[in-house]
Specification:
globular, 5 strands, alpha/beta, about 290 residues
């Protein structure tokens, strides 16, 4: 055992070492993205594990790249969901040039109320699918497919490509992305792979609308006209593709993952000013409506 004298010597040294370690940690946090990456990845891991625990009594179907969890009442829809998920997996990861490090958990909820409850939403809130914290959550197809071939409709119009794209954006950027951009990328991927496009009243009704700037889209997205907001996100992404090439859409994600903000990431990927791009986009959209 150590004597008392030795303890008196060791304690100040130990305290000094701890203090130096803490100062070094804070310095690292200020100058390196790595700690933020660790924190974000750990937070997503905990969220995924929490969802797994919360749905521990659900039934489970494992595929090559997905874990489908569902209630007994929705057992007949599990094969449809798993088929749709596997169909979009390869095309989506090829577009992103990125594959998640572990199978993706997909939880199917029996109705809108139970899905909304997992986020603390009002029970009247409706969504076919939601990505959050490393997990894709979807609504039972029977809740929104009321006629026709359920399997074909879910594969063509279901949320798998869209929500899986959100997941990849999250992984690549480590959560460092504007809301409007992940919505634009997810829609672009979905449209290209399945052909499905959300209804945009400004585009298809030729009605006069006031478009939102990117600050408004980021700050108030859920309180805006959803058709116009989602449509504008898709149009912005398609404009990046048309002007600079599809690869730049995903290069922006890489730069975001390095800790750059959207303006920096856009400039590094395209060599152009983000503010100028926004101005051109708004002018183009207003011209489209006027025509």
């Amino acid at each position: 055992m150590l004597g008392e004298r030795n303890l008196f010597i060791i304690k100040p040294i130990l305290g000094l070492m701890i203090a130096i370690s803490i100062l070094a940690l804070f310095s690292w946090l200020k100058t390196s993205i790595n700690p933020r990456q660790v924190v974000f990845n750990w937070s997503r891991f905990l969220s995924r594990e929490n969802t797994g625990f919360a749905t521990r009594n659900f039934e489970r179907l494992d595929t090559e790249h997905f874990i489908i969890k569902y209630t007994e009442a929705n057992r007949q829809n599990a094969p449809i969901v798993s088929e749709a998920a596997e169909q979009i997996f390869e095309p989506v990861i090829r577009m992103f040039n990125f594959e998640p490090p572990a199978p993706t958990m997909v939880v199917m909820y029996p109705d809108s109320a139970s899905l909304a409850k997992t986020f603390g939403w009002d029970k009247t809130e409706k969504a076919m699918g939601v990505y959050w914290g490393g997990t894709i959550r979807i609504l039972n197809p029977d809740e929104w497919i009321t006629d026709g071939d359920k399997r074909q409709t879910f594969i063509r119009e279901g949320p798998m490509a869209h929500e899986f794209a959100h997941l990849l954006v999250d992984y690549i950027t480590l959560g460092n992305y504007p809301r409007w951009y992940t919505e634009g990328v997810a829609q672009y991927v979905e449209k290209k792979i399945t052909g499905f496009e959300l209804f945009n009243p400004a585009k298809y009704n030729n009605q006069s609308v006031e478009y939102y700037d990117f600050v408004t889209l980021e700050r108030d997205f859920d309180h805006l006209d959803q058709g116009i907001a989602y449509g504008q996100c898709l149009q912005a992404t398609e404009m990046i593709v048309a002007k600079y090439g599809e690869d730049k859409v995903f290069a922006i994600l890489e730069y975001l993952g390095q800790g750059n903000d959207m303006k920096q990431s856009f400039a590094k990927a395209t060599g152009q000013s983000f503010d100028r791009f926004e101005q051109e986009m708004l002018e183009m959209q207003q011209l489209d409506i006027a025509v």
